[in-house]
Design brief:
Number of helices: 5
Order of helices and strands: HEEHEEEEHEEEEEHEEEHE
Largest sheet: 9 strands, mixed
Bound molecules: zinc ion
Radius of gyration: 20 Å
Shape: elongated
Strand content: 35-45%
Distance between the termini: 30 Å
Helix content: 10-25%
Amino acid sequence: MTISFDQLIEEVAVRVKANMEQTFEIEASGRHVHLSQEHIDILFGKNHKLLPTKYLSQPGQFAGKERVTLVGPKGVLHQVVVLGPARDKSQVEISFTDAQKLGVRAPLRLSGDTKGTPGIMIMVGNKHVILDEGLIVAKRHIHVKEQEAARLNVKDKEVVKVQVMSERPLIFDDVVVRVSPKFETFMHIDYDEANACGFKSGTKGRIIKKD
Ligand SMILES: [Zn+2]
């Protein structure tokens, strides 16, 4: 079958557009902690309310003004941001590079899945709490707004690959899709991953379906 040059151009344009529509923005999450109200009370004072300084892409989530220090057997990390609002359980999300600095082993987990993970000491001034568990390296994931799941051709809990469309392109495997009406569509990676793929603000990704 032969097609004309114009038909070819049209065909390419259609495919490019389809690919464009399956893209989404990526965000790099720095190390941070989520705290229970009980731990907020200990570290910042009874009934302290976290003070939002910047709202994040996921509705209701914010970076607080509050900062903590993480204390490990080999090192400390200062000025770690507290994200709000308060959660039922405290959780600390660091990168593998951070784990080396602290001298701890942190397992790769999805946020909220902290059963059996190590703890860590969190300090503010002369106050501290020691978590029994909750130290993780967050597993990369895509938040998909329910209404956009069809456009991206994905289902909740599906595992996909993501091609990062950056100056230093990289295909990430083992990316977990989470679909909810409460989400806005963004992929989250940590700073180790961001550096590996040359991430810049506005970098986009594209889903590659697993066979
Ligand atoms: Zn996320």
